[in-house]
Every structure is written in C-alpha cells, then in structure tokens.
Amino acid sequence: MKHDMVTITIDGRKTSVPVGTTILAAAQQMGIHIPVLCHHPKLTVTGACRVCIVEIGGQPVTSCTAVAEEGMEVTTASPYIEGLRRDIVDLILSDHPYDCMVCERAGDCELQELAYKYSIRQPVFQGERRIYTKRDGNPFIERDMEKCILCGRCVKVCDEVQGVGAIDYAYKGFETKICPPFERDLDCEFCGQCIAVCPTGALVSKPSLGKGRKRNVNTVETVCPYCGCGCNITYDVVKNEVIRARSRQDTINEGWLCVKGKFGFSFINSPDRLTTPLIRKDGKLVPAGWDEALDLIGERLRKIRAADGPDAIAGLSSARCTNEENYLFQKLMRAGVGTNNVDHCARY
Amino acid sequence: MAEIENNDVLFVIGSNTKENHPIIAQRMIKAVRRGATLIIADPRRVPLVRHAGIWMQHRPGTDVALLNGMMHVILAEGLTDRAFIDERTEGFDEAFRKTVEEYTPEAASKITGVPKEKIIAAARAYGKGKRAGIYYTMGITQHSHGTDNVYAIANLALMTGNLGKESAGVNPLRGQNNVQGSSDMGCAPNVYPGYQRVTVPMVKERFEELWGVKLADRDGLMANEMLDGALAGKVKALYIMGENPVLSDPDTGHTTKALKALDFLIVQDIFLTETAELAHVVLPGTSFAEKVGTFTNTERRVQRVRRVVDAPGQARKDSLIIMEISLRLGYEMHYHHTEEIFHEIGRAWPAMAGMSYSRIDEEGGLQWPCPTPDHPGTQFLFKGGFPRGKARFTNVKYRPPVEVPDEEYPFVLTTGRLLFQYHTGGMTRREKAIEAVAGRPYVEINRQDAKALGVASGDKVKVTSRRGSITIPVHASLRPDRGVVFIPFHYREAAANVLTSSTAVDPICKIPELKVATVRVEKS
User: Fold this and answer.
1) ipTM at complex level
2) Residue A73 domain-assigned?
3) Which of A237, B28, B407, B494 is deepest in the core (most CB within 10 A)?
C-alpha cells in the first residue's frame, strides 16, 4: 500500500482513499449517501449542522470534518445514528416556521426533505422561537432569517467564491444570526450565490416571489445573454414567462451567476417588446404587416443596388445573435447583396 | 476558464473583471487564494484591486509605456525565456531591444504616473511566473493605439514564454455573449467565416462554390467607415441587426447625423432602440430565449442556445427574416432547421467541422478548433506552434492619446460599464430591481477634484468635450486618480458617447478611442 493512501472500512466495505480525505467524501465516492445540511461541495468544511454524523468506533462523529485514518471502521447508518439524526433535524425544526405550504422553496428544500425522510410531523422539542420581523429592503434577495438554520453556506460562498464578504455571523448563542454589518440592508454585488446554496427558504429571489414553485414549471437549459463568459443558465418557465434563473453545478460556471444572469431576464417578457414590423409613413413609424415590410425592403434595396451598385448597401450584424444568424447575415450581404460591407460591434 | 485557477501570476490590464466578467473574476480570486499573485494595471481602483498584490494606477492611454517599462526590467534582470525566444519567435532583435531599453522604470514612471518601484515589482512578479496569464479587455483596445497596446502585451508574453501552454497566454475577455461567434462567422468586412480573407482569390473561389454565386473581390467597409460613407453619400442603405450604435458608438451627434443621411435604414431588434427610432423600417426580431442555435464564449466554447418561451406577437426568428430578405434580392437561402445552417458553417470553416448539436449537448460545449467528429476540441491555442510559423515581436513605442488635457479641457474622460447594467441598457434598464440599485447615470470624479470644483456627490455638473456636453450627477470617489473622470455609457439620459470622439481611431483596426477623451467639468 502506498504511503499517501489509507484504507478504511465503510459499512463493511473496504476502500482506499488519499490521505486527508474526509469520511463524507470517501462514502460519497462509494455511492453511499449521507445526509448533509451545512456541507457544500464547492465550499470549505463547516461542521455546523451535525446531520452528517456517522459512527466511528461506537462514537458519533461528523463525517464532513472527520479525516480518514488507516483501519477506521465506519458505520453510516444504524438505528442509533438515524435516531440521532432524527433528533438533530427535530431540534432544527423546533426553531423553524411551519409554513411549508406558502414557502417559496417547498419541494426544493433540503430541510423539508430531511423532515420527510424522518417523518417529523411535529417537533418533539418545545421552546423559544426566533422571531424576526424586520425585512431587508434590497430589491433582489428576500432574507427570512426565521428560516435560517445558521449552516453558514451563504457566508462562505460570499467570501470564498465571490470574494465579497457582505454577510457574516453576528451575536452569540440563541441570538446568533447572519446579517450584513450593523444589520443594515444588504448592499452587495447581488450575485445571488447565497440563494443558490441556501438549503432552506431563508434566502430566495425577490422578483420571483409568488410566481411558481416546482409544480407546473418547465425548465430549459440555455446560455446567458450578457457577457462573454458563456454561463449556463437554467430558466424556470410558467405559462410562457421566465420566472427564475438558476444554474447547475456541473457547468463551466460551476453553478454561479452574476446579478445580470440571475435577475436580469424580465426583459424577455417585457411589454415594450416589438411585436409587429413598423414602417415610416409621413415621418412616423406605424405598424405594418410582414409582407408589406419585407416587400418594401426588397424593392428599395434592389433599386439602390441597381442605381449605385452593391457597395452602396452595408450591414451591421450583432454580437448578441447566434452563430447561425450571424453566418446567415454575412452570407446575405456577400452572396445576396454582393458586397463585403458587413461588420459588427466587436470594436465597441 | 478553468485554467485561470492554476495561474501562479495573473496580470489584469484594462479590464474591470469583477464588474464585467464576474464569473471569470471568481476564478481569479480562487487562484489568488491558492497563492497566485494578482497584478492589476488600471487607471481606476476597480473592485478586483481588493484582491491584488500589486496595483498600478497608470494614466489612461499610457499602456505601451507601462508594458515597455516592465519589459525593460525583465530584460535587464534576465527574466526572459531564451529557449522559447530562440525556438518559437522572431524579431527579438537589436532594434526591438533598443526600444525596450529606452523605457527605464524611471522613464515609464514619468509617462504613466506609476511609481517605478511598482513597475519593477510587477515586472519581477510576472517575469518569474511559471504559468503567467494576461487578461485584458477594452481598456487595452479602445485607444488610438489599441493595436500597439496588444502588440506590447504579446511582446511581454513572448519574451517570457507564456504562450501555447496551459494556464498562461494572452486572454482577451469578450464583452458580449457572442462577440467571439459573430467574429468567427465572418461578420467583418475583410474576412469570410473562420477569418479567411476575402481578397485571397483561392479563398473567394471556394466560397463562390459553396454559395453558388459570384462574390465581391475587395474588402468592404468597417462600421465607422459605413457611417462616414453615409455622410459622404456613398452608402445609401444600412441594415442593422441587433445593434444600437446611437448609444454605443462614439460621438452620438455624428452617428445620428450619419444614420439620418441614409436613403434607407432597416433596424431589426427586440426593442424600439434609440437607433430603431431613426429607421425607415423596423423589424421585430427574437431574443435569445425564443430561438435555437449556438453562442461561442470567450474561451471559444460553442454552446447550445435553446428556446425558452414563444416569441411575442408577430416577432420572427432573425434567421427567417434574413432568408426572406435574401429571397427578395434574388438569392434563395433555404434551410429546414437551424442545424442545417450549423452544418454549412462546418463546411465553410474546417475548425468547426467536427461539431454537431448532439456532440455539443453531450460534451458540454466544444472549443474550436474541432475539425473532425472524433476531435475533442482545443483547450488552448498555439500548443504545437503559431499559425505564421514563428511568433513575431513588434517594435512599439509609446504614442500619447489623440487628446491630451489642456487648459480648456483639463480632465481625461474614460468610459465603461457597470456590474448592474449592460451595454446600451435595452435589457437591463427594463429590470426594476436593477434600476432600483443602479438606475441613475453619474460621473465618477476624484474627491479632491470634486472639492476643488465645489461639488459633492449628487450635485449636477456639466461635462463638455469638443463634441458636445451632458449634464450629470457627480459621484465623488477614490476610484479614479485626480484629473480622471469616468462615465458609464449605459444611460440615454446622459449618454457618455455624446462626449467621445469618432475621429480618434486606431490606424489599423479603426477602433475608436473610447477610453480617452478630454473634457471640462463645470458646476451646473
């Protein structure tokens, strides 16, 4: 056996992993599922939620923080462990609003899923609840801190991935909450990475509120229309309206978007969209039919070409259109009109 | 893009990456956290500076002097890659070295305003990097010497052997989703798809055969020449698809006058833009969300665009509109579905011949060149060599911008974009949430300059150049140095391009000097 590898046994199966591998990672590589709430594959380890506990030598240990050591015997699921996990989820739920029926994340909530798994109908533990009435006034991110389970994913993604650090833990003990400095309204890059990693309904997109959850929502994978990064976007669509933008983690942008990609899609369904051709008549642009507009274009361009030659006609194509459209546009100018007068705004 | 994480040195010059390419900036930050050195050269304290080891605040338009100054240090301290220079380059001769030698750190410091210690430190950091990548955008190119700037960057990379290997290179970051693709597709007056020159008879014959028609044999007009041609009465008709030059092009007054001089202007767009308002015929096209096709991103990755919603009203797919117009000009284009066009692109340009929609779907996009169906695509260029054989050093000297501050116009204006807004605002200015945080234009001005002018943030000032003037609120800030002001160009109500010049252009590629214009700022 090489020195940089260690062999451990998980649920009776032997595996060798590189030194430094966590039990959670080793189990995941073997296809063994361990529930998590604070762990996120793109972020550093937190070890806050305790849901990922496993049994090592009879002791409960959080598998996201425990590093594999030679000869370790790990049990990921036993009545003892499952009982502990159930209690942990139960405890979290004891300080969580029971409003799944109106929650934006219902059906897409990691906490709800664990409550379902452990069939927790009513929390056993009764006690004080955190009540936060103040709402954040920013226009992008709805922050419902009563639903926050203090997993810290948002704090980490803001710092580690986005390099901003707009939020952090504040106060201590039961009073602990995640907020911007001095509990002011959020004033950041509004990339929405925190929404993407939040396991519950604590952070959701404000412009999408009330527009649709999981049911009757179509999803389409495409590419962002803004800068040249080419981020992959998943749009949620209800009745021909885009209601939400997300991204998958297995894409070139690793699931991250920016404020424009995450929130800048309502122009698609804008009432300002052009819906009919317009022709200038008596100095004013008035609606016209397609045949009329296209025939007019054909006639005018043919006349100009006949009188002044094809080089009197020029075309500007678009860095916002597809390759296929751009190809056709230059083909139209070159083969259809007969000129090389074609350019686009790569310079601006 | 993933390669960025493995850079040990990142040199970002003329790019406000955190605001304009946020997802690439994330990768840069990741590299920094892994121990890479980030060097930034920018006249403004851009947000990424927070993560930088070295920030050089050079005066707008002095990039060549700065880069030559760095090369001077690299040469003097023997940080060049001799083997790379000998094997893979030419032109590293007496004349070139002599030019570089003129730019001592002291001389470069005098021109750029950057302390010589910083120039030396940056040169050493870059020169010692094993996987050093350079990243730039319009801050390098939008100058009357934009081509020289790019040559200087290429010289720096060649001198240190930072080309043709992983996590290195010279990386222009593309500002629009398909700038790469529309360039690849030959939407330029001198090249067919795949950068094949229209003036090479063999190339022309090949395209004549592919398209079944005789083709023009000389270069066409570039965008700015089209507008000049319109004013001169030579260009009579212009067909604009999905562009808004009234706001995006320099000198709005000039652009508007030129468009009005046309006999016939066709504008195809999704909104009635400032440009469409001047058209004779406006055609409702479709947005990216209403069609299928492909976009090519900044790393040459061709990716699928899918239909998300139905187009509104009678809006039509842009490809169908083009075919209808072509038909009426007596040249029939006929395609059953969009992928047929994609296959024809592969026949026109071998670098995309190995791609298909199903491969792109299965493999998460493909980076050209990808000449055959079993080719995996190409992660980085120039691995086996350069297209011209040996890469050439180009001897470039510092030339000042066309406009330099004087008594009448004492400030240097530079323009750009913001994180929250996009280009001429057709899309983002219709987003309520975005408008709530970034809905107003402003001129960013150094706090001390603001104080000297007797204005505070929120006060309105009149900014005047040789072209025109706008009235705009002040944002007093520490971002720009004294004597430099910045205006984002998204806002029609205070359009930055009223002030910029359409005549100050690069002699080779005709790119306008949008990053340097001199202005006067007065309390209004």
Assistant:
1) 0.94
2) yes
3) B28
